[in-house]
Write a structure and sequence with these properties.
The chain is an alpha/beta fold. Helices cover 33% and strands 20% of the residues. Helix 2 packs parallel to helix 5.
Length: 285
């Protein structure tokens, strides 16, 4: 009888050990794959920059579930081939954590900003048509040219781990912040091309405590904005619902305005409590 009880006890101990090991492995895997991303970008004649940018994207995708969606139009170089090879490489791995898709078109839209807005909207349509919003946590829109060849992936991962502090997280540049075209703040919310010509030295007109001559200090707090891009911005995916890009000024459709400004305006109208910041320590310069 004692031997029987001892045998049962040993079996129970072994079962408990196996259960704990399996649970630990499951938790470890979960921690390693805790973020799911849709990484998107539009490209035209970016072939000479793509190898470095795609390496940065691969680095960012490590230990995450990622859907890569790229758009290319009318390239005269090898942009389409490089992107298609990347997509094929990802899909041929048959790894459920990684998927990729390339949209390629010939366009006849003459105005630059409406053309870019169309490109970005084609990506959004693909996301909506494939019901990806509910499957992925974050949508990362990034430029695929020289802007992101020095993307600080470690800083992006740090930002993702602070997801409870923001809804939209836009990248910064510590040397100088260049993207005044997409920038709108509570202090200054107008198209800078109408007057100041978006000169980087005028950055203090958008903020009270930032000098355009020195760039943005990495050590300051999150900077609240109404719109920003900088070549790389992260969104919580639910914000994509009913939001689209347009490349025209809201007051005059014959005048171009940054497509990101109109996209962000729609998001803020749909979700008024959205926490939108430039993240000073997250950089690509």
């Amino acid at each position: 009888m004692k031997n029987l009880l001892l045998g049962i006890l040993i079996v129970l101990v072994i079962v408990c050990i196996i259960f704990c090991i399996m649970r630990s492995c499951s938790d470890l895997f979960k921690n390693q794959s805790e973020h799911s991303l849709i990484i998107v970008g539009c490209a035209r004649d970016c072939g000479k920059y793509l190898p470095k940018v795609l390496n940065k994207i691969k680095e960012l995708a490590k230990n995450k579930k990622v859907y890569f969606i790229f758009y290319e139009n009318d390239s005269k170089d090898n942009t389409n081939m490089i992107l298609q090879n990347f997509v094929n490489e990802i899909n041929n791995k048959n790894n459920d954590n990684y998927k990729a898709h390339l949209i390629s078109e010939k366009l006849y839209i003459k105005r630059r900003t409406p053309r870019i807005a169309h490109c970005r909207n084609q990506i959004l349509k693909y996301i909506m048509n494939n019901n990806l919003i509910d499957e992925y946590d974050f949508y990362i829109n990034m430029d695929l040219d020289d802007v992101n060849i020095n993307l600080n992936v470690e800083s992006v991962n740090k930002c993702l781990h602070e997801e409870n502090k923001w809804d939209i997280a836009s990248i910064s540049q510590s040397k100088y912040y260049y993207d005044l075209w997409a920038l709108r703040t509570h202090k200054k919310n107008n198209n800078c091309w109408h007057n100041e010509r978006c000169h980087k030295k005028n950055l203090n007109k958008w903020f009270d405590n930032i000098d355009g001559h020195k760039g943005i200090n990495k050590n300051i707090n999150y900077i609240p904005v109404l719109s920003a891009f900088g070549g790389f911005t992260i969104y919580k995916t639910h914000l994509l619902n009913s939001s689209w890009y347009t490349g025209e000024d809201k007051n005059n459709s014959n005048v171009d305005d940054c497509e990101h400004v109109n996209f962000h305006s729609r998001i803020l109208n749909n979700y008024p409590n959205t926490k939108f910041f430039i993240i000073p320590y997250m950089t690509n310069d």
